[in-house]
């Protein structure tokens, strides 16, 4: 099977490797044979992969350059040609970036020695039995907006009845959206080309990372294997030989492409480190700032942590053991408990004058937002100028400049509002039914990230929540299946959320049932109310669930606390379906919990607007 169709023209060849079918292309313009890392993993050829003596760079038809560091030798490939089969041993370069499974170049053609019919553009193979097979060229077609699909059983019936007029091999490639950066923005980016160079060495800045340890703590040494990343870190000047009494083990984490990332296990050091109090911003607070803006730029620093120096006297504490000796970092590595706080502090210090005006920063993800393209160009100059002044390097491949729609922190932002990341929504849609409590927690965590988009999330998810309790035996009942399907449906049929407008009053609509509470924060847009965020909670106790009055009061209390940063200190409206909320300030006998809730509610300035349950859109 070919994962993604290429752009260009190739001969289609079916290959069998170890009993597994692989779709491949024979390309007379390629000087080498290539196989994707994903295909290597699928064919279980990982043990045969070897490093090249030197890196090989190859350019694809779309001008993209692939850098290849590994190869696999003498793979037994069986080629099927219309019922005939030929076997050859072929070596491949292993690529992490090949957009399909296998590409057979001139090395393959030299092995099989086919003939070419240049007039008809046909590749001719002679089989050992004397039979001749012709392979025609694959060519990308024009864009097709509509097409029909047929299930396998229907196709087989047509085939048996000899109803087909012709049979074709079709590879569908997704239409790529053309993104054009405004010329004013391109001009600004070109002026700061030095920011996109590889970061090396150590830059002395005001912010350095410090590691304060608890007095009299003991450090334990652990050993683990060395990985080739050590050589790269030494060449960049980020680590050096150490004589430290500290020693952390080396771990390896597989990356998406199948390669390994070296990680240092600093759990021992973190356990004796005095924790700093530098807070990270709430993602929702950052996203609130872009209301009314039409142009966005996302900037990501390159190896961001490694651009922060470690305080000189703390460098020995970062030591890690390898088979070649002990090394220590002179820049901030991943895995230190206080590293995120240090990095956020460094970014806040640089951009403090402009934070929340036209820039928000979450660690090494920088978002610039503006109302006009001219304003955006000026904002971009300021940000890139500050990065140059403080000698930070930027990852150009991860940046997006002057876009009207952008993906930031898992959300798609545009002038229209806020939406979930389509890629994550797709993964939720295709999520298989959980078979264990661990799988339930994974699904719960993925959907929970986007709970602001789902009305009554907690109520819907209640059966799944109950299933994760320690005292609950595993039993996937009908209620669990219903909750699972409802959450998947809700996340794939989401409503585009409006970004809050500080100049308009908010409307809080609440509702409560015996299972949970639900609330929605809205603002008027034309004649309708547009949702900004949904909130839901499970009912905390059966006793509370029995009282309609207390349920409604609890729903209002939780909604006001949840949206405190929007509502406190400003007038807003509360819509509820129960008249008893009108008398919350006149009750003479109250429980301690009710007194506490009313004390909080009294802090807010709102007007109650009772409505009937059928008129509301937050009921469960």
Give a written overview of the molecule.
With about 625 residues, this protein is of the alpha+beta class. The protein has 4 domains: about 10-135, Beta Barrel (Cathepsin D, subunit A, domain 1); about 185-410, HIV Type 1 Reverse Transcriptase, Chain A, domain 1 (Roll); about 420-495, Alpha-Beta Plaits, CATH 3.30.70.270; about 505-610, Nucleotidyltransferase, domain 5, CATH 3.30.420.10. A 6-stranded mixed β-barrel has the order 1-2-7-3-6-5. A 5-stranded mixed β-sheet has the order 25-24-23-26-27. β23 (about 505-510) and β24 (about 515-525) form a beta hairpin. α10 packs antiparallel against α13, α11 (about 435-450) runs antiparallel to α12 and α15 (about 550-560) packs across α17. The longest helix is centred in the middle third of the chain and has 17 residues, at about 375-390. The radius of gyration is 30 Å and the shape is globular. The two termini are about 45 Å apart. About 30% of the residues are buried.
Task: Compose a concise summary of this entry.
The chain is an alpha+beta fold. It has a six-stranded mixed beta barrel with strand order 1-2-7-3-6-5.
Which features characterize this protein?
Alpha-Beta Plaits, globular, 5-stranded mixed beta sheet, HIV Type 1 Reverse Transcriptase, Chain A, domain 1, Cathepsin D, subunit A, domain 1, 17 helices, disordered N terminus, single chain, 4 domains
């Amino acid at each position: 099977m070919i994962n993604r169709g290429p752009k260009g023209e190739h001969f289609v060849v079916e290959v069998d490797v170890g009993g597994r079918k692989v779709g491949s292309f024979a390309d007379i313009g390629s000087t080498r044979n290539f196989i994707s890392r994903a295909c290597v993993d699928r064919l279980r050829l990982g043990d045969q992969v070897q490093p090249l003596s030197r890196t090989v760079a190859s350019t694809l038809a779309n001008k993209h350059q692939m850098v290849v560091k590994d190869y696999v030798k003498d793979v037994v490939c069986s080629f099927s040609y219309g019922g005939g089969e030929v076997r050859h041993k072929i070596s491949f370069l292993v690529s992490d970036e090949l957009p399909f499974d296998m590409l057979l170049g001139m090395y393959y053609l030299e092995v099989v020695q086919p003939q070419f019919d240049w007039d008809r553009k046909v590749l001719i193979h002679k089989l050992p039995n004397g039979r001749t097979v012709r392979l025609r060229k694959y060519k990308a077609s024009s864009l097709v907006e509509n097409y029909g699909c047929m299930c396998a059983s229907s196709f087989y019936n047509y085939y048996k009845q000899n109803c087909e007029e012709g049979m074709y091999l079709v590879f569908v490639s997704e239409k790529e959206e053309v993104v054009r950066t405004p010329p004013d923005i391109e001009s600004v980016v070109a002026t700061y080309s030095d920011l996109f160079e590889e970061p090396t060495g150590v830059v002395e800045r005001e912010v350095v990372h410090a590691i304060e340890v608890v007095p009299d703590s003991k450090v334990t040494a652990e050993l683990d294997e060395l990985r080739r990343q050590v050589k790269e870190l030494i060449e960049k000047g980020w680590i050096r030989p150490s004589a430290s009494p500290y020693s952390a083990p080396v771990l390896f984490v597989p990356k998406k492409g199948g390669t390994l990332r070296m990680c240092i296990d600093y759990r021992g050091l973190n356990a004796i480190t005095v924790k700093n109090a530098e807070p990270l911003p709430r993602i929702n607070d950052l996203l609130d700032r872009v209301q009314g803006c039409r142009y966005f730029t996302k900037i990501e620093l390159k190896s961001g942590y490694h651009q922060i120096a470690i305080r000189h006297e703390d460098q020995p504490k970062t030591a890690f053991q390898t088979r070649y000796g002990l090394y220590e970092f002179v820049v901030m590595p991943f895995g230190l408990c206080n590293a995120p706080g240090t990095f956020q502090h460094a970014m806040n210090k640089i951009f403090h004058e402009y934070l929340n005006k036209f820039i928000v920063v979450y660690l090494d993800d920088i978002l610039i937002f503006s109302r006009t393209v001219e304003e955006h160009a000026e904002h971009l100059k300021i940000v890139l100028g500050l990065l140059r002044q403080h000698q930070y390097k930027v990852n150009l491949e991860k940046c997006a400049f002057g876009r009207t729609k952008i993906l930031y922190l898992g959300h798609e932002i545009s002038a229209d509002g806020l939406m979930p990341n389509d890629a994550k929504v797709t993964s939720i849609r295709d999520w298989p039914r959980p078979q264990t409590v661990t799988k339930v927690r994974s699904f719960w965590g993925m959907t929970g990230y986007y709970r602001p988009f789902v009305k009554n999330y907690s109520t819907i998810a209640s059966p799944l929540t109950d299933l994760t309790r320690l005292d609950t035996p595993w039993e996937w009942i009908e209620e669990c299946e219903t909750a699972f399907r409802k959450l998947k449906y809700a996340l794939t049929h989401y409503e585009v959320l409006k970004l809050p407008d500080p100049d308009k009053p908010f409307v809080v609509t609440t509702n409560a049932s015996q299972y949970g509470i639900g609330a929605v924060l809205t603002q008027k847009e034309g004649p309708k109310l547009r949702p900004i965020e949904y909130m839901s909670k499970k009912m905390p106790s059966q006793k509370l669930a029995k009282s309609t009055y207390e349920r409604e009061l609890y729903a209002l209390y939780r909604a006001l606390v949840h949206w405190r940063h929007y509502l406190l200190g400003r007038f807003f409206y509360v819509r509820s379906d129960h008249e008893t909320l009108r008398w919350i300030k006149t009750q003479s006998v109250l429980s301690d919990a009710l007194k506490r809730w009313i004390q909080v509610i009294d802090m807010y300035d709102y007007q109650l607007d009772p409505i009937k349950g059928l008129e509301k859109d937050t009921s469960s």
